[in-house]
Here is the input.
Amino acid sequence: MNTEEPTYLTTDELSTRIKYDARTIRERLKDSVLIEGIHYFRPFGGRKILYIWESVQRDMMSGSRDRPTGLSAIPMANGGVLHA
Here is the structure.
């Protein structure tokens, strides 16, 4: 069992690690491939977002566009998905 604490990153820190612009993360990846409650959370219910590096890395390294286990998504006409 992994007893290490998760690594929490700000958007800018995540940007440095995955080589994507912070704006791209906020506008294109968040809520499409990076899902709240799995890849990021809002501490104390505030506006700040912290990404969970281990979750992002795991799903990024999978190399597929499959949804993480247990999640369902409804395809939308504009190419996005509704997370159910």
Remarks:
- Residues 53-61 form the longest helix (9 residues).
- The chain has a mean pLDDT of 84.
